[in-house]
Amino acid sequence: MSGHSKWANIKHKKERTDAKRGKIFTKIGREIAVAVKEGGSDPELNAKLKDVVAKAKANNMPNDTILRSIKKAAGELGNINYESVVYEGYGPGGVAVIVEGLTDNRNRTAGEVRHSFDKNGGSLGATGCVAWMFERKGVIVIEKNDNIDEDELMLAALDAGALDVQDDEVALEITTDAASFSEVYDSLEKSGYAFAMAEVQLVPSNTVDVTEETEESVQKMLDMLEDNDDVQNVYHNAVMDE
Length: 242
Prior knowledge:
Elements: H1 7-19, H2 21-39, H3 47-58, H4 63-75, E1 83-90, E2 96-103, H5 106-119, E3 123-125, E4 134-143, H6 150-160, E5 164-167, E6 171-177, H7 181-190, E7 197-204, E8 208-209, H8 212-226, E9 231-236, E10 238-239
Parallel strand pairs: 8-10
Antiparallel strand pairs: 1-2, 1-3, 2-9, 4-6, 4-7, 5-6
């Protein structure tokens, strides 16, 4: 999942991933594999794995698929050679972009990411050129419905340790510290809430309003990056009409 934390952009990305469910499951499976290799197969003892499992559930990945992915990763640790890579740059209109990937071929991935920027009027930059504009936080989105008492949900989220709860007309967006994400997620899950999105991501400290003239180019660049098999997450600070 990607973008700044407004529901319109999240919803657009969610609709795209819904249409490409198999590909998203493959990418999440890769994140599970790396998390298991780094910290073991028990989510209660491996905070990174626990966060990835929450992300998998929010993307409607079946529990048995999640468990199979964990067991597969635990049994094939010697065969996992993914390397974490991060790229930073600017899209059209000065949009700040951070790309996180897992790859078995750094040169291939770097070339493909650079091509995605260049082809759409963006430019790949040096490490740190835009990272200062983002902060890693937990983001949980719960869509409104007639069965949800919004005031009750807000209180439950804040009592569980959330930093903020924003009402975005059709959804409630809950922000947490990265370290307290799992605690807030677990508390709300136990209360029976269903999540449209739940993951730790990079949230921009400021946003850029994209003009009508550059919006198509920005979206094409983001789509091209997200469609890359080596790319796990694309974060940006663009505000676009949906």
